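Figure 2 data, in text form.
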Amino acid sequence: MSTGDIAMAERPKSTTFPEICNPAPGLTAEQFIDKIIALRPMIRAQQEQADAAGAYTAEVHEALLSFGAYGVVQPRRFGGHEFDPETLIRATIEMARSDPSAAWCWAFPAAHVIMLAAHYNEDAQKEIFGRNDGVAIAPLRAPTNGTIRKVEGGYIVNGTWDYGSGVPYATHVMPTARLIDDENPGPPAFYVPVVSAGDFRIVPGSWGGELTMGLRSSGSQTFVVDNVFVPENMVAPFYDFQRAGEDPEGTFGTRLHGNSMYLGLATSLFGAVISAVMVGAAWAALDEYEEILRTKKTINPPFHERYKSPEFQRTVGQVLMEIRAAEVQVIEVARLYTKACQQWQAGIPFAAKKDFLQSAMTTQAGKMAAEAIEKIFYAGGSSVAKKGQRLNRYYRDMATYRTHPIAQYDTAAEGVGQAHFDLPIPMLEAVGGARSKR
């Protein structure tokens, strides 16, 4: 079955509970990252095929399954590796160095497993992980026009969500939806249902090919949920995704797994993942640029390889400083997330404001990485503008990333300025995060 077939398939909900097992038990974090790197030749060789399909190939998917890549931060109790956020971010950088779109497709739902393990109770987690032999691929989607309505025993979910990155291989989706409550009108409240495969459909032709400028194989197809009942324990308020660190009781996940990582705050963690993709994209662009400098000669005497010219050495030096700085910064945010969770365990709240400010650091890291890609592209010569050139691909991927809300640097700067003066930060209230407590 091709990736395109998978993306359009109506996959039935699993009805069995096989024994949950880790396909690579005892794997260390370094060995995990080495396995991600080892996929590079295959991923790069299949870039054009993946672009056409809208997601990486089934061969890559199977390779990721073989060592439990989707379970990088999944609880050991449910067959995951339970590595820390730093390992997730480092692995994302390496995957993006193979192909930014592949990293976008894999890392987003892999990171979202933290949310599954944090905000849904034990019975829900047994249901989520148990039906798929421990594999949980569940893209989290910000609210668009989706709605959720309370009924006896649960909720009814309706809506269409675009940009469901990772959805072609999804076992579930987590579409943030606005609560419809006719009896209590007021400010909107948002909830996050977990909807199983078989209860959502992917819109054919909604991603891949020539539809977008870049990130063509990021698996960002549109999906639809049509009048689906979701049990109450499979629904969580979005409030928890932003503010669980302000509650001394924590989450289902902190109590169940005994790991403060499962506070499950989404803001800085998601920012770190998306910026890690850009850091990896910048390394990928530098790989291509270095190949150009080693194989092409200068257009002026003395006609030697370009890497011997100060003109090109200067560009390499500039982008190396930027990429390394961005990489250090995004990895440090992952460490800060872990540290803040550990401090919460010691009684120090992990406030939404702090999470936001850490996320702003990842925005700056993404900015440095994007600017490095621009420098490389402009210095690569006219041939890199031709279709089929990898530098062309990485530039388009970067330009597409720049349209993402999290890559709007001025907006992030406004929020940082508001926080500095201890003023309200409207961005934190943008999807009702302070209004929809459990």
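Caption note: The chain has three domains: 3-130, 140-237, 262-429.
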